[in-house]
Amino acid sequence: MRIVVRPEAEKELLEAQAWYESKAQGLGFEFARAADAAVASALRTPLGYGRIEAEFRRVLLRKFPYSLIYLPSDDELLVVSFFHQHREPGVWLERL
């Protein structure tokens, strides 16, 4: 299964990583590791996480208030958003 990351999701990831790094040295790296772990987990069991909207699914990042929002298919894992959990729910839907 291949991973496809939407540009908006990549932007969210990089912005969050930079923000955390600005708060404490190495924290941005820890955030990136948590995001990588969430993607790896979704790849292992793409249908193992709860649906949040239609066929979209969510993995919570460890230690950080972010969710990985993705859409699984037979041969692809589409990463739609790295979404801050304190933002208005469903905002990521507007980009689809």
Describe it.
The protein is of the alpha+beta class and about 100 residues long. It has one domain: YaeB-like fold, CATH 3.30.2310.20. It is about 35% helix and about 30% strand. It is built from 2 helices and 5 strands. The protein has helices at about 5-25, 25-45; strands at about 1-5, 50-55, 55-60, 65-70, 75-85. It has a 5-stranded mixed β-sheet. The two termini are about 20 Å apart.
> Taking strands numbered 1, 2, ... along the chain, how are they ordered across the largest sheet?
1-5-4-3-2
Structural class: alpha+beta
Low-confidence stretches: none
Apparent shape: globular
Instruction: Could you tell me the CATH topology label.
Output: YaeB-like fold
Kindly report the average pLDDT value. 93
Concise description?
By secondary structure, the protein is an alpha+beta fold. Helix content is 36%, strand content 29%.
Helix-strand blueprint:
Elements: E1 2-5, H1 7-23, H2 27-44, E2 51-53, E3 56-60, E4 66-72, E5 76-84
Keywords:
single chain, 96 residues, alpha+beta, YaeB-like fold, five-stranded mixed sheet, 5 strands, 36% helix, 29% strand, globular
